[in-house]
Amino acid sequence: MKQFEKGNACIAKAALLAGCTHYYGYPITPSSEIIHTVAELFPEVGAIFLQASSEVAAINMVYGASAAGKRVLTSSSGPGISLKQEGVSYLAASELPCVIADIQRAGPGLGNIWPSQADYFQVVKGGGHGNYRTPVFAPNSPQEMVDFTIEAFEVADRYRTPVYVFADAYVGQVMESVDFPTTIRKIPEKPWALKGNKETKGNLITSILMSPELEEELNIKLQEKYREIEEKEQRYSEYMVEDADIILMAYGITSRIAQSCVDILRDKGVKAGLFRPITLWPFPNDRLKELRTKTKQFVVFELSNGQMVDDVRLVVKDHAKVDFYGRMGGVIPTPDELVLKVEEFFNKM
Prior knowledge:
alpha/beta, Rossmann fold, 2 domains, seven-stranded mixed β-sheet, five-stranded mixed β-sheet, about 40% helix
């Protein structure tokens, strides 16, 4: 079903199509259209919407709904995501699935409401305490806001883990034609959930284990799960990389700018390509290891101080040169600006 829709609203509609029945959150620009759309649509179909008193309250309500076996969504932007981090750690430790949408704004501090990709460290590396990871999907369009939100719920339930939909303000605010599914996903059985009846009264869901040995057992179990996710859930897309002498690496809105840059460079006779991580964790290391032997140079392009570039360098190592170009504070460069920078790097090879 085709609709002309804003990226943020796509997340709310996709959540319903994914079988989500509960939303708890607190509004913050530039993510607020998610909660606005949820407030309008969820009650109409009997789903639960509640605007919490704070981000901290919201993430703990997510914990409760997930423990009861529900598919649950929350959303925020940088400062709000920071406040949720303790709760995300609790969710990971208790192996509770949920989806968290982060629509990034410029920072640090309150910053401003313009697009940024500076939450990478906080979300991809795990902003809370303890030895946990969370899968992270990085859409670059309203259509992918739909597709990846639905997939995020599937992955969350498959591995019993929180999962992020990780976008910048531009992708959240842009409006495009979107093709929505016409059927609602079925929620899988959750025999581990606590449903307030005698059949599930033995299901203890907690993130506190007072025995060091039991806590270590939990940590070992989680690391085994994360290794499985790394093995099975790496996602990426690529554009003109097979014969590329220089490969741009970008996600979110920067990947769309980078693709235009590749087209311009190709017209100029430069064999450029684009490799886009769709999952920022697990990072698509396997494919990147193949590409590092086929190209001479990578240019990482981000709306940050270079928070993804270390992940690229860890994989590429000495096989190819890795350069970085970024803008901060909400500034979005044009394709022509990026072309000039890439040509500068390329000429120094």
